[in-house]
């Protein structure tokens, strides 16, 4: 599972606190995954293990899913600060 070591940072990279950056973060992670899959062509087992881990993290709403923000999980305290968001 040598190819899995390049996919683990995607799961461990925290989401930014500012909601304005969530879209940019998800696009960056999506393009990173797409370019990794096209360039490195990981084995089937590694791809399935990674997709299962990504599905479980996003399904459980632990707050580190880069695809979307779970509606049940609260926003961080700094998300309501206008100085941080830059409105």
UniProtKB/TrEMBL annotation:
Cellular compartments per GO CC: membrane
Keywords, comma-separated and alphabetical: Membrane, Transmembrane, Transmembrane helix
Compartments where located: Membrane
Entry's transmembrane regions: 20-38, 45-69
Single biological process term from Gene Ontology: apoptotic nuclear changes
Main location: membrane
Record carries keyword Transmembrane helix: yes
Family under the similarity heading: Belongs to the BLCAP family.
Subunit structure: Interacts with RB1 (phosphorylated and unphosphorylated). Interacts with STAT3; the interaction is promoted by cell stimulation with IL6 and phosphorylation of STAT3.
PANTHER family: BLADDER CANCER 10 KD PROTEIN HOMOLOG, BLADDER CANCER-ASSOCIATED PROTEIN
Task performed by this protein: Acts as a tumor suppressor; induces growth arrest at G(1)/S checkpoint and apoptosis via RB1-dependent and p53/TP53- and NF-kappa-B-independent mechanisms. Modulates expression of genes involved in the regulation of proliferation, cell cycle and apoptosis.
Name of the protein: Apoptosis inducing factor BLCAP
Gene: BLCAP
